[in-house]
Prior knowledge:
Blueprint: E1 7-12, H1 17-20, H2 34-40, H3 44-49, E2 54-57, H4 61-69, E3 76-78, H5 95-101, H6 118-133, E4 139-143, H7 145-155, E5 172-179, E6 182-191
Amino acid sequence: MPNAAIQVYLIRHGETQWARDGRHTGLTDIPLTDLGRQQARYLEPIFHSHPFQRILSSPLRRALETAELAGVGGRCERMNDLHEWDYGQYEGLTTPQIQQQVPGWSIWSHPCAGGETIDQVAQRAGRVISLVRSTPGDVALFAHGHFLRLLAACWLGLPPQFGRQLLLETSTLSILTMEGASAAIRTWNGPLLTAACAVPWSEAPK
């Protein structure tokens, strides 16, 4: 039976150099920047004050490092389905660079040469959602921008392409939930600096 009261905390990892530069970072395993590590530490009050049934992370370093700095490295389970979109030959390129090769290219409307299709990513997201909805309690997911945008679209029962409308920065916290039988978004793209979407101001780190 799905848990109707479920809260799903989506944490996009802290800043990396490639993310800062707008480069597509799929399976390349790069670390957080100093700023990214600082941002990730603002998550600690959330995990001190909120009881999570499960904490899951992409196996990639930037997500695991964010979880570690949030103080939950020892509780975090790696889940391969949470890894970022495989961009294939477009790995490390910016959108304008790709559009020089393929005019009008977008991750939401065009294929990635040698990488994953949007349907393949949606299949992974569907498996994550099935696991979350079968968990009797709240879940936290540490993952990546494009993947989490697509997962949120699928959570709402919308086509995966709807993720295009859900902008998501690094070092952010979003929360998915249920309102009765309907999937919903409680908050989206909240900065970790204040953790305002989940933690009272009085609990924010000093």
